[in-house]
Amino acid sequence: MSLTPDQQAEIDALRSTPSQTLRVVAPGAEKHLYSAVPVLDHGFVRVIDYMGDDAAICQAARVSYGKGTKSVQNDEGLIRYLMRHWHSTPFEMCELKLHVKLPVFVARQWIRHRTANVNEYSARYSILDREFYIPAPENVAAQSVVNNQGRGDTLEGEAAARVLELLKADSTRAYDHYQEMIDESGLGLARELARMNLPANIYTQWYWKVDLHNLFHFLRLRADAHAQYEIRVYAEALCKIVADWVPFAYRAFEDCRLGAVTMSAQMVTCLQRMLKGEAVDEENSGMSKREWREFQGMLGN
């Protein structure tokens, strides 16, 4: 993990001078404040601020003030009801602000979730560090033959070694040329132009603030086993943070979203026929080949 000395000094200062507050605090979130969680080879995620907790979700759902006479058990039951029935607005009462360091190509996937506030490190004003994501050998894989946007089998031997050699060499050469172009005593090119020569595996940083409803949507897609590894590991790090911050809401999310499946009408009909003892196969299912494969995966076949 690559925190700069200034960032580490800021973290140390903030953690050594806690502030008093009248607002409700979530102990699980407090322990993550300003602590950087390493991700990939140079990346990290750290919590800068948060708002709300499990009780805030229930308060918003009941449109009342304070905890009233409701028990903790009732709160958890209410949250599970809201999650099961896709009631989103109570979860929007909680927010999380993060500082994330990530490769540019991961950031371009991440930014497609257009439901957050983002402020990214500017390469127009600042010089990017010489830090590139180079995958571990076990994450160097061939193109999938069944999924045009995914990985297939892991590359091994000379092929894997050559890929890593090319990545390292190209990254180094691109950054050397970047430095040469912006050198004021040399070419003196504007930083906003020189940055276009940098590869997509260079690291960037941003502050990302999102409400819990939209964060759950992000995690449902990016913590999924089918998500690209390089963004999935960020989502998995966030899952651990959210589980500590809002444990009731996260358990409901884990059960009703991460661990659940969504079936089409044809899938439900086929399942009903199977339960009645009928023989159902791809030909008489009424599904496409891909949908049938997904249905079989849901059934564990």
Automatic annotation (TrEMBL):
What is the superkingdom listed in this entry's lineage? Bacteria
GO biological process: one example: methylation
Query: Which region is the signal sequence?
Result: none
User: Per the annotation, how and in what number is the cofactor bound?
Assistant: Binds 4 FAD per tetramer. Each FAD binding site is formed by three monomers.
Q: What's a single GO MF annotation on this record?
A: thymidylate synthase (FAD) activity
Needs which cofactor?
FAD
Active-site positions, per UniProt? 222 (involved in ionization of n3 of dump, leading to its activation)
Q: In which pathway does it act?
A: Pyrimidine metabolism; dTTP biosynthesis
Does this entry carry the keyword Methyltransferase? yes
Quote the record's binding site residues for dUMP: 109-112, 120-124, 195, 222
Q: Which UniProt keywords apply?
A: FAD, Flavoprotein, Methyltransferase, NADP, Nucleotide biosynthesis, Transferase
| Binding positions (FAD) | 89, 112-114, 120, 211-213, 217
EC number(s) from the headed UniProt entry = 2.1.1.148
Q: Which InterPro entries match?
A: Thymidylate_synthase_ThyX, Thymidylate_synthase_ThyX_sf
Q: Which reaction does it catalyse?
A: dUMP + (6R)-5,10-methylene-5,6,7,8-tetrahydrofolate + NADPH + H(+) = dTMP + (6S)-5,6,7,8-tetrahydrofolate + NADP(+)
Q: Which family does it belong to?
A: Belongs to the thymidylate synthase ThyX family.
- Record note on quaternary structure: Homotetramer.
- Say what the protein does: Catalyzes the reductive methylation of 2'-deoxyuridine-5'-monophosphate (dUMP) to 2'-deoxythymidine-5'-monophosphate (dTMP) while utilizing 5,10-methylenetetrahydrofolate (mTHF) as the methyl donor, and NADPH and FADH(2) as the reductant.
Q: What is this protein called?
A: Flavin-dependent thymidylate synthase
